[in-house]
Specification:
heterotrimer; A mainly alpha (about 500); B alpha/beta (about 350); C mainly alpha (about 170); A: 2 strands; C: mainly alpha; 2 domains; about 70% helix; about 0% strand; flat
């Protein structure tokens, strides 16, 4: 009890600091910069961080932390705007949101989808913070039990959940997931450094870039179809008058249990260093699909398909701060960059960040919470005009979206190879979409393959094959994987032949 | 005697920056160069936000201050391929008009003499501007049973070593010489994964960049990690010497351990393998001008880097950010070291 | 139920994709032979699994060729995203439009490689909007906005170095 009171007291102190001068304006600079770059497909928070780093290096440490964390907090919130309104997921994090958000926009419910995503983000960070305050000691112990075998199995669980829930055929999902894994293996082999499958192309030494592939696979087919239909994105005029402010809130409130579940997933995956937000996001999406009475509605504009990934991503963020500052091990890629900068500025990661300096840690967490709220409010103010994008004629909209996408794709490596990958992925994406081959497992394979392979390598090197039955967490994860694989068949059996959970057109 | 020798070498390296600046040729050659109103570009061999990138972004404003005409500095990030991507880009894509320079690391430079198909640069045609020294400090978990040199040479417990692929030959050769039971795990893609593995006990030893070690010394000490030996680096005389900054003078090099405990192995094939890797640490983060760059521009860049390394404000900034002073090897001092390092890495060198 | 022509096209595409997966797997396996065994554990596992799953999938297709054929939309509330808009049937008679649209995408990509982002992107917007017979003011305005954003936000403001256009490289800029 004393420990919880100490943690709660540190939270109050940390939260209060966010509103002091000049901490608050510094955070606002970060938030505005993060919101702007989040809106531009392909840019992501890294560019905003890089732009602000020279200033951060000259600033008082606390001001620098909150400014950079302001960027970190909001980029994955505003990236849902192009994903929902235009079907253009500018980051991997926005992909899951666009699967249901864009069909909602087509129905004229863009405002509702966006508001639901903002509220989900805010609630996710709140629930995540509450979980920290209550369960910090337990989470600390959890981190110390995660070695390569556990990492590998957790990543495989995320992959299997996404593959088995995507598309009307499990075999198609597995094949596409496998293709994603194969693409992820292009480049240098972990452990040996040998270049694999790169042919004569130096560009491929670094592996295949993610963003041009995501933009190509998902956004190009939508834009091409929009141009061919030659209508507006929204087929219904209903949404023109509906901001979605209240409906989005009701959606989140109705699905409060889903928000809690996804927040737990986000916190745990954020807390475990090295997993990244994609695992949190897709596990959350899979939980939403698996727990829905009508799983067939996902991919067609089910608001739960927006709430779940947004909650998972948002709650992952404060989670990732803890291992970064406490152990010097970044919880995700963005935190890896921030850690280097924080250390340069003067932060010394260590256990005292969860003890004597816990209020500083909670100031950082609070920036994420406040950042989400402020960004949501700013986005709501702009929403009225943003939603109008869905009512612009395709003839005018298509060239701008295409141009923004191709520029965004080039940001990956600033090489013409990015454009070639984007064009190839776009063509394949169109075929996959209309032949009803699920594209989500491909992207999942690409993301997860890069994380999974080094861990498999280390695991087999270090433990041979004993790890499969001697490590309790691994055994639990294997059971979860089996359940995820069996879930569609079980559901089909229960529904007496009705099709299993699937994400149409994903 | 030995400590005096080390001190002398340390002084040589620390003072080399000043010496390089003081010697007239580069000054004279740089006469008449001005970058006024221009933008100069630095190719960085890492993605944005990684330590090398931040190091270059921190030094950029000072370079601008010390380059004639105070140009604007911009950064071109070309990460990947063990820095070969950046080297290829520097060699092939940069205009040799004096406004562009590139960077790559020592193992990347070594690729140029190994005859691989995808390596499209030749350091013999480029101009060396200088390099930063970064070596490796090898840390052990307390429960490994190895906490200092004494327990290291008498080690009975297997050493589970987490490594990066490029450095592996050094450690394998060193362990073979010392006769200590070891197993290498080189699959961890990033330092952070190795650190987590060290924390959980999946491995019990791993090397740290000496900057990282000094920066996080208090954290690592509390985590019961111990610095036992270091890779060291090659100085101008061709010897492998330790870094001495941040209290590292108490951490011996692998070479000095071999000399003391396995003297018969000095000069052996494994010794040469160790030397070929350690030699690169002195010129770890290299800066080059593309082929065809006029000598007067090369001289201006060399002078700017040396002036920056002597700039009091930059010294303070570097110390604050990285925990150690900047160890800069000027172009004229570093050139023979790079040549030796490359020669040792040619196929069939030993 | 979709018409026989659509079903035929749909099934052909399905077989082509399966063949593509198998061919990719076999290609990967053949490339693995030159690599040290330590670099091939995961690729072997994935490639072989791919071939096996593709065989199982093909066997199912041969046994019941009709199982993935396009079905009519299930429910009338979301026709846009249901099978009619997603499946091959939705594309019937639109081959020329699809070809034109992809040609536009590829022309944009090619033009960027030849003359660079700063020139190609605004030109593309101008040409596309005028080709679609929209207002030239919108066309010119849109092109100008993109030019300004690329030049002053990305290149000047963010110091982003776009790749050098090929024409400039060939003719020595």
């Amino acid at each position: 009890m004393d420990e919880i009171l100490f943690i709660a007291g540190a939270f109050v102190n940390g939260f209060y600091k966010v509103f002091t001068w000049p901490v608050f304006p510094m955070m606002m600079i970060g938030i505005v910069a993060g919101m702007i770059v989040g809106l531009i497909p392909g840019l992501g928070g890294l560019i905003a961080h890089i732009l602000l780093i020279p200033f951060a290096l000259q600033m008082d440490p606390l001001n620098a932390y909150v400014m950079l964390l302001g960027v970190y907090a909001v980029t994955t919130q505003t990236d849902s705007i192009p994903a929902v309104l235009l079907g253009v997921p500018g980051t991997a994090a926005a992909l899951a949101t666009s699967l249901d958000g864009y069909p909602m926009a087509k129905r004229g419910e863009a405002g509702r989808a966006l508001c639901a995503s903002y509220y989900a983000s805010i609630l996710g960070t709140f629930v995540a913070t509450a979980i920290f305050i209550l369960f910090l000691p337990g989470l600390r112990a959890l981190v110390n039990n995660f070695s390569s075998p556990e990492f590998f199995m957790l990543v495989m669980l995320g992959l299997v959940m996404a593959s088995s829930l995507s598309g009307k055929s499990a075999a198609r999902g597995l094949l596409m997931g496998g293709l994603g894994l194969m693409i992820s293996m292009i480049g240098q082999a972990p452990g040996t450094g040998d270049t694999r499958f790169a042919g004569p192309f130096l560009y491929l030494w670094e592996g295949m870039p993610l963003i041009p592939i995501v933009l190509g696979l998902f956004a190009v087919p939508e834009v091409v179809d929009l141009a061919i239909r030659n209508t507006t994105i929204a087929s219904s005029q209903v949404g023109r008058k509906v901001s979605g402010l209240w409906v989005g809130f009701v959606d989140c409130a109705r699905n409060w249990w889903l928000v809690v579940k996804c927040s737990v997933v986000g916190v745990v995956t954020g807390f475990i260093p090295g997993l990244g937000g994609a695992v949190a996001e897709w596990m959350s999406y899979a939980i939403a699909v698996a727990s829905d009475k009508n799983p067939d509605s996902f991919g067609k504009g089910n608001v739960r398909g927006v709430i779940a990934p947004e909650t998972g991503t948002a709650s992952h963020k404060p989670g990732a701060i803890i291992p970064t500052v406490a152990f010097g091990i970044p919880g995700n890629n963005a935190m890896a960059v921030l850690l280097v900068v924080f250390v340069i500025i003067g932060l010394r990661p260590g256990p005292e960040m969860l003890d004597t300096q816990l209020d500083l840690t909670f100031t950082m967490v609070s920036v994420v919470i406040v950042g989400n709220i402020v960004a949501a409010l700013l986005a709501l103010v702009l929403q009225r005009w943003l939603v109008m994008l869905c009512f612009i004629r395709a003839n005018l909209l298509v060239p701008f979206i295409l141009a923004a996408m191709i520029v965004g794709a080039t940001f990956a490596r600033l090489s013409f190879g990015d454009i070639m990958v984007f064009l190839a992925a776009g063509t394949l994406g169109y075929v996959f979409k209309h032949a009803d081959w699920p594209r989500v497992p491909l992207v999942m394979g690409l993301i997860m393959g890069r994380i999974a392979e080094p861990y498999l390598f280390s695991t087999v090197d270090r433990y041979n094959y004993e790890w499969l039955y001697t490590r309790p967490i691994v055994v639990v994860l294997i059971i979860f994987i089996c359940m995820a694989l069996a879930a569609p068949y079980y559901r089909r059996w229960r529904n007496k032949g009705a099709p299993g959970a699937r994400i149409r057109g994903s | 005697m030995k400590s005096r020798f080390n001190l002398a070498l340390a002084a040589l390296v620390a003072g080399s920056a000043t010496l390089g600046w003081a010697f007239a040729p580069s000054d004279a050659n740089a006469q008449g160069v001005s970058f006024k109103g221009k933008t100069v570009s630095i190719v960085v061999f890492s993605p944005p936000g990684a330590p090398p990138d931040l190091w270059f972004r921190q030094i950029g404003p000072y370079l601008s201050k010390h380059l004639p005409g105070n140009p604007k500095v911009r950064y071109i990030n070309k990460g990947g391929g063990g820095s070969v991507v950046a080297a290829n880009y520097t060699y092939n894509a940069l205009k040799p008009d004096g406004t562009n320079i590139g960077s790559f690391n020592a193992p990347g430079a070594a690729e140029s003499v190994r005859g691989k198909r995808k390596v499209q640069f030749d350091t013999s045609k480029m101009s060396f501007i200088g390099a930063q020294t970064i070596t490796r400090i090898v840390g052990f978990r307390g429960d490994s049973g190895t906490t200092d040199l004494n327990s290291f040479v008498k080690a009975t417990k297997k050493h589970l070593v987490g490594l990066q692929a490029a450095d592996t030959p050094y450690y394998e050769a060193f362990y073979r010489i010392m006769g200590i039971d070891f197993q290498v795990f080189s699959a961890y893609p990033r330092f952070r994964q190795r650190l987590q593995a060290l924390r959980t006990g999946e491995i019990n030893t791993t090397p740290f960049a000496h900057l990282t070690w000094v920066q996080n010394l208090s954290t690592y000490t509390k985590s019961d990690f111990h610095a036992v030996y270091q890779m060291g680096y090659m100085d101008g005389s061709g010897e492998i010497v330790p870094v001495t900054v941040g209290g590292m003078d108490k951490v011996p090099t692998g070479h000095s351990i071999v000399k003391k405990h396995k003297p018969k192995a000095v000069g052996s094939r494994d010794w040469k393998i160790m030397t070929s890797v350690a030699a690169g640490q002195g010129v770890a983060r290299e800066v080059w001008a593309p082929p065809g760059t006029d000598a007067k521009f090369v001289a201006a860049w060399r002078k700017a880097f040396v002036a920056t390394s002597n700039d009091a404000q930059y010294k303070a900034d570097h110390q604050k950010a990285w925990g150690v002073p900047m160890s800069w090897i000027p172009g004229d001092v570093g050139e023979p070291i790079v040549k030796k390092y490359l020669d040792m890495n040619r196929p069939g060198a030993f | 139920m979709a018409d026989p022509e659509t079903i035929r096209v749909s099934r052909t595409i399905d077989w082509i994709l399966v063949a593509l997966f198998v061919a990719t797997s076999v290609l990967f396996i053949s490339l693995l032979l030159d690599l040290p065994p330590r670099a091939t554990i995961f690729p072997w596992f994935v490639s072989v699994t791919m071939v096996l799953v593709a065989l199982v999938y093909s066997a199912g297709n041969l046994r019941n060729p009709a199982r993935w054929d396009d079905k009519p939309a299930e429910g009338g509330d979301d026709e846009e995203t249901a099978a009619a808009a997603i499946g091959i049937a939705a594309l019937k008679g639109r081959g020329r439009e699809i070809f034109r649209m992809f040609a536009a995408v590829y022309i944009l990509g090619g033009a960027i490689m030849l003359v660079g982002h700063l020139v190609a992107v605004p030109l593309f917007i101008l040409a596309y909007v005028l080709y679609r017979r929209e207002s030239w003011v919108l066309a010119a305005g849109g092109a100008a906005v993109f030019f300004l954003v690329i030049q002053f936000v990305f290149i000047e403001g963010m110091d982003i170095v776009f790749p050098e256009p090929m024409l400039l490289r060939w003719f020595g800029g």
